[in-house]
Write a structure and sequence with these properties.
It comes from Candidatus Ornithomonoglobus merdipullorum. Keywords: Signal. This protein is mainly β. The chain folds into 6 domains: about 180 residues, no CATH class; about 220 residues, no CATH class; about 45 residues, no CATH class; about 130 residues, no CATH class; about 100 residues, no CATH class; about 110 residues, Copper Amine Oxidase, Chain A, domain 1 (2-Layer Sandwich), CATH 3.30.457. Helices cover about 5% and strands about 40% of the residues. The protein has an 8-stranded mixed β-sheet with strand order 2-17-24-29-26-27-10-11. Strands 42-43-44-45-54-53-65-64 form an 8-stranded mixed β-sheet, covered by helices on one side. Strand 62 and strand 63 form a beta hairpin. The N and C termini lie far apart (about 70 Å). The N terminus is likely disordered.
Length: about 850
Amino acid sequence: MVNLKCLFTAAAAAAIFTVPAAVYAAEPADIVFTQEPDGKYIYCNNHEVIRTVDLADNSVRNPKYIMNNEELTADNYSMFLSFSNRTDITTNTNLESFTAEQRGFDIEVDVMFKAREDTVITLKRLGFEVPEHRDFFLNGTEYSTEDEWGCFYCWASYLGMPIRQINSGNAYYGDPIEETTIEIKAGEIVWLSDYIDNYREVPFCRSVNIMADFTIESGVCDVNVAAVRSNGELKNRDHVNKSPGYGSYYRDKQYKGISDGMNEVTAELSYTIDDSEASGTLLPVTVYNKFEPEGNTLTEWYTHLNPSADPWSYALCAESDMISMTYYDPLKLTYYGSDVPEEERDAYYVFDTEHTDTAAYESEYGSRSDYVPNRLLEEGDSNDLACNLGNYGVIYNYKIKITNNGNKHRYLTYRLRNSSNNVVYVKDSEGNVINGYALCKGYRSESVTDNMACMSIPAQTTSEYTVCVILTPNYPGGMANSLMLTDYPQIIETYETERSGIEKDRFFTGREYYKWDLTTLMLSNDRENWRSVTLPDKVANEIRGNANEYSLTYTGDGYLLRPALYDAGVYSHADSLFRTVYLLDENFALRSSYTFGSYPQSCTVANGVYYVETSGTVFRSNGFYWWDIVQMEMPCWNYGRFSAVCENGVIKLSADGENFDEVKYLGFKPDYIDSYGEYYYFTDGRALYLSENGIYWEGIIADETIKTFEVRDDMLIINGSEEHELPEIKETVVIKYNGTYIGTEHEPLLTDGTTYVPLRELAELIGAEVEWNDGLITLTSGKEEAVIDTAAKIVSSDGTETGIQLMIQDGTTYVPVRQTAALLGCTVDYDEDTNTAELVK
């Protein structure tokens, strides 16, 4: 198995070795890290993939914890947990192939606090995330993406500040918790999930990150990490085994343990500069490690990497940044060779730069009888025996003190060269975060140098800053760091996103809300009163274990049920196991099903016509039996007279779900169109526009940028709590001219069965010339002419009164569309089913 977390290219390291020795104007600063001693860091990324055999509930033969931290006493603790769900693996083996051969199921990862005696705990910081799939519109085109695996919403919550990606509009906003006191009586159990508002299941092949800072104020408590099969009731722990087995270490090149210190390391750097340092100078540092005990002076140094595990960059590593962890595991005692004396055996693993990460004996380790697991590294050992450390979740503090004796205002830029998506923020001399937010680098497929912090260094002053750097989960370790001195500030750009759209409630069918209790479907109109639905046995059996990750869409006379685990299309190793879409009737009987050649990323219905998108290809069917490939975007439908689609910013409507015609907007034009229940909608920052037909819109302005909305009791609920009166959305007559739907600036009026349209807009539409003369308006289109007497409010042709009345409303002159258009040479047809007047000329 290739270890993605510490993948490092030799070419990158070799480039550094070829730099000739330099004479530095500024004296090198020593890079020596010290760990924050006031507390302990609980770290668990082992077993990195959670297998069926790792579960702690009664669904498995030998339930066990993932990690045991027993009898913790009063102290400060920080906890980092990161895992992926690979419950397709049913044996105690490593991941041999990324490709899954069978389906896994939803799990829940949690932390159990079990008091040995009365215990008081203060929960101070908390973050949780399962990266989600999101849809958005950009320049009129809909895209699907998945949140970064670095779990930046989790980190924004944990750090208590937003995170913005450089050179991007991506921004992550968390929801920091209020400090909470938890009192646990002796023998009682409290689960961390009870305090996580956004807690959810971890779908098969998806990942989870949990961060928590807490203080045991008094008492003694076990703090154990467990994973359980989701039983359909979120946070329910009734099926957890009463006495799960111990969470032993299993060698998969990832680790677990407790570090005797918090998840912060600090290096203090001091420089004195003057005007002699040229702009662009990289300030020197000296690193010390087991391979360079006397120090190695560089202008680019490596962190988040065990020098013993890397054959290329070992001489460039700081090493002192790598925290040491220990893990008590009684099973370790069974791994020693028979000739190893009892007094030389212990039950503690040590994961650091000095030890191997070995556990059970393997033949390549040498003599079986002399075998010592997790022994000290020896000269000649392979890099693979060393611990694959990355210092995930550790906050690096570079405390920089720089004196500028020159006469020029200078700037110091912290730079990172890697492919990983690190978080960086800067504090001033008082410890305040500059700008109030952190930056993230953005994941790259190859190593790239980015400016991550730029600090002002005025002339004739001493400036102090702290640059804070974090490696979040699921990215490669090995960070190349440097400090560059310049005469001008280095621009580090973030910008407001141009993405549009709302975060749709994934548990809304378009008509009602739903949730799952195992394979029992629950429906509700108000999220309070629920009714159960029993699915057909065939469907229930096929979605068992993953039902909560299935999407239910109302079709107007039934439902579409499809897998929704991997809609962003980044799980090619598992998505082929989920390819079937089910068509159910109003009573949830199975009408039909279809298994596509690849994963169905989305599905919808448009005026009774079914659409499914797989791998970017759109399929269409009238009866769910035969499917045709069509070259178009996925449409949407509000269960009304028209379905809609947005293609390259052009909005089109259809009355039959197959033939879509463009909308020409003479007035307000939305950037995109999407449906939510019975409404079409479009959002633009704080503005929300709703429509019945996709042509005429009514809007409201919210207090904040609109992220979600729903209609509840005839009220618009914005972002979960902000209430607005629901705009009056009425059905209006629609005008179509030569095959194009027309959105006039003023809506047509229907009076006594007659449709009126704005005179000026009708003239523009059919290309008629308009002449105003003493209260008479003459419209000329080719040889056809109509004369309007605004005083008498009548229309005539060839001097003959037609009996056609006009209307003036709010200063706008309206004329009957059918008669007036006919006078100007148009034929007019009226479709009663869609309330559409179609003009053809």
